[in-house]
Specification:
This protein is mostly helical and 480 residues long. Helix content is 71%, strand content 0%. The longest helix has 37 residues. It is globular and about 70 Å long.
């Protein structure tokens, strides 16, 4: 079920909120949440529930055994088994086809037959695997005690707002909220939640989906053999996808966070105006925050973090980012994308870019953010494009200067620029207000007076009605 569907907005969500409100003081509240969450996830294909149940029940059982055991070796072995089993299941579904398809021809050449794995990828498997795995690891570290109720645990793993595309919540942050009785949200919280769901729909339907159309059109042109791509369209491809993936993923996170708020559950912030970042470290503190903090706590720090030599610290950064790239999907370009961001993290530590820009005074942050945004967009090319399209994209980008000097010669380029500017301008305004407050737009909206709140709400509704894409599209991160 999609957040941007009529069924979710006017059917599923009101039903769940009403049902929980009626049952919240009874022992049926969490069974109800678990059941509706499983329906939400399995409504498209029932078999998706099988790996979800395997992961959840495995870690529930191992978590209990790890906590009860006093033997350090047994505790370590049980935790290792959980990690290997989780990553093995994830690898089978996510990387099995890619790896077997790559190696099958080579092995066939030496007389060995390798069957190509062909199985559908269950949505959210990367998200719930990391989430469930952290439960066992935190118990092993003595940072969390397991919950005896399997229903409470299942309601944590399957909680529908964040199940499919995050944020990746830790058990210690979410499970206690779900296990205890909760009061109804206040009228102010409800009105804020409804506005933010509307805002998320605007991000998705108006901005992200319109940019998706641009990216898809240019991608189709890039795939036509023997036909050169118009000058500048490679740059439009990179910028349009940068806007699309941000607004698409931020929209999901916004709707997820505020849908949970209607159930009086607090999910962590997943974005905080990332394109205002002046460097890679700041970017990863603002972009997909739940994943970046997960990788920091469960990969980068266990590898050694910044302890030891500088070279070892850089190695840990590179490994973390490459694995982060591979987490997103099977394909060499996801690895290249992660490697690119690892290189940026290392380069910004080696080169004192901040000091070099200090001579620009008040413009320092503007220039630094603009420069880093270009570097992020280079990475997005590898993230979105097919390998065969990469040369044509960079060739088209190299042809941008003549287009800027004689724009009338490429009306297609200008048309895309105007469309992209129209879609991106309101989001820049919203993000600017949030950035000035050190957060994001939801932190600013409560300070508006009633008239301004009504005006902004009406503008968002009109934008969705008149500029929104009629064809509902899946959220990008459903594929991860």
């Amino acid at each position: 079920m999609q957040f941007n569907s009529v069924a979710y907005i006017f059917g599923f969500l009101p039903f769940v909120v009403a049902g929980w409100a009626l049952l919240r003081r009874t022992r049926y509240a969490n069974p109800f949440i678990a059941c509706v969450s499983l329906y939400f996830y399995g409504s498209s294909r029932v078999w998706y529930l099988a790996p979800l149940f395997f992961t959840a029940l495995l870690d529930y059982y191992i978590g209990q055994k790890v906590y009860e055991s006093k033997d350090p070796l047994r505790r370590r072995n049980l935790t290792a088994f959980s990690v290997v089993a989780n990553l093995g299941l994830l690898s089978y579904f996510k990387y099995g086809h890619w790896l077997t398809a790559k190696f099958a021809p080579a092995l066939a050449g030496v007389g060995l037959a390798l069957p190509v794995i062909s199985v559908g990828l269950p949505p959210a498997i990367s998200f719930y695997t990391f989430q469930s795995m952290s439960y066992t690891i935190d118990i092993y570290r003595r940072e969390f005690k397991p919950y005896r109720s399997v229903i409470d645990y299942l309601s944590f793993v399957t909680f529908f707002p964040h199940l499919v595309a995050g944020p990746i919540m830790r058990a210690r942050d979410l499970l206690p909220q779900l296990a205890r009785g909760r009061s109804l949200p206040s009228a102010e919280q409800v009105s804020m939640a409804l506005f933010m769901i509307l805002f998320g729909l605007f991000q998705k339907i108006v901005v992200a989906d319109n940019m998706a159309a641009v990216v898809d059109e240019i991608s189709a042109d890039l795939s036509k053999p023997g036909i050169p791509v118009a000058p500048g369209l490679g740059l439009i491809f990179a910028y349009a996808f940068a806007i699309q993936i941000y607004c698409d993923f931020a929209a999901y996170s916004t709707i997820a966070r505020w849908s949970a708020k209607l159930l009086n559950v607090e999910l962590m912030r997943n974005f905080a105006t990332p394109y205002f970042s002046t460097g890679p470290s700041e970017f990863w503190q603002r972009w997909h925050i739940s994943l970046s903090t997960w990788l920091r706590d469960y990969l980068y720090i266990p590898l050694g973090g910044n302890r030891g030599s500088t070279a070892r610290s850089y190695r840990n950064l590179m490994l973390t980012m490459v694995i982060g790239g591979l987490w997103h999907g099977a394909g060499i370009l996801f690895i290249v994308w992660g490697f690119w961001h690892g290189c940026l993290l290392v380069a910004y530590r080696l080169v004192p870019i901040d000091r070099a820009l200090a001579r620009f005074g008040a413009l320092e942050k503007v220039i630094a953010a603009a420069l880093f945004f270009q570097l992020v967009c280079v990475g997005w090319i590898f993230f979105r494009a097919a390998p065969a399209q990469i040369p044509a994209i960079f060739h088209s980008i190299a042809a941008v200067p003549p287009v800027l000097l004689a724009p009338a010669e490429n009306k297609q380029f200008l048309g895309y620029v105007w469309l992209m500017s129209l879609m991106w301008a309101p989001m820049l305004v919203f993000d600017y207000f949030g950035w000035r407050r050190g957060g994001e737009f939801p932190d600013v909206f409560p300070s508006f007076n009633t008239a301004l709140k009504v005006l902004v709400s009406l503008l968002l509704i009109y934008a969705i009605v008149f500029f929104g894409r009629r064809q509902a599209s899946e959220f990008i991160y459903f594929a991860f």
